[in-house]
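Second attempt. The first submission of Terpene synthase had a stray character pasted in from the spreadsheet, which I only caught after the job came back as garbage. Lesson logged: always re-copy from the clean sequence file. Corrected sequence (371 aa) follows.
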Amino acid sequence: MSLLSRMTAPTARHDVAQLVAALLAEQPRPRAVPTGPTGLGTSAARVTPRREPSSDGVPELYCPPALRDDPALGREVNDRLVDWAGEVGIYEGRLDHVRAADFGRLMMLAHPDSDDPDRLLAAGKCALAEWATDDYYCDDGADPEQLGSHLGPAYAAIDPAHLPLRYAAAWQKEVREDPVRVALRSALEHLSRYAEPSQLARLRHEVAVLFVAYGQEGSWRSRGHMPTVPEYLAHRQINSFLPCIALADAVGGYALTAAEYGDPRVRRAVTMAATAATLVNDLYSMTKEHGTSGVEFNLPTVIADRERCSPREGIERSAEVHDELVRTYEVEAAALALTGSPQLRRFLAGVWAWLGGNRAWHSGSPRYNSA
Ligand SMILES: CC(C)=CCC/C(C)=C(\C)COP(=O)(O)OP(=O)(O)O
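This time the job returned cleanly.
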């Protein structure tokens, strides 16, 4: 059986990933990740074996580096993003923290195949609005009892509720009364300048899933429930950066078809990458979450609790989980790139680039590194 016919096999699993790895080792090896037409290469994507933890206590992770660093572009996106946050009213009184967190830099690092500040800004608005949903409705201090009541209207802000005429104006007024809803709606409006309807539908789907996960976390929080490790990992796939990663093509100025995005093999690879990116958040945000009241949800804490190990061991095991996900993505994305469209190749490269930019941002952002 040829390599190509094996590549069209049904949904990949771990054993298939191993088979692909073995096959690729025998073949002239394709690039570790597919290269986009803008020259995103893998030469910069060298990964290094695990080393001693850095000063922030996060172990060396198997992850590409950021594929570009353009501080001026990041600053421009960040300045415009903070202005927008002020306009829509999110993080009132806390905009200095938002500026310092530097989400504009995250967009610049994570989307190296676009140097258009307005496209990066559109993606940044979506990310910040999704973050605000979490910060306002879910995180420390929020009332879990109100979570569902908040998330329904928040979703309706991005997938408009079409009410009978006599109620429509009143509903619009209600949407405008909550800054998170205003932010979500405004962000989607901006993105629609660049995204095709299918890409917007994709984003709405990913955000709906994210909100389901917010509800799940709220349920854990209100019951004081510590999830099992698999339960937590399945949760982190849906409470993840996938809504951000899903914009790789819209930001890059091309469109992956719904059929390829929805291909179970693509879905598997991309969701594993999204989980890995979010575990990076877990590792870097532990310190920030440590001061919060109630149950802490991050993989090291869950592992330490459920597997009865030390906090340091929880961190090490989390890093291993992260690395396995990234390695699996790397192998499966390389295989998928052999048979997919040029858009899929570029998208998979974009996801890889997102991983590198995400890690670089987390390691430097004051959101996770303040004294
Ligand atoms: C930008 C985006 C899609 C965010 C949604 C999910 C989310 C808030 C994270 C993946 C970050 O997780 P966490 O709740 O731990 O966030 P912080 O550590 O508070 O930044």
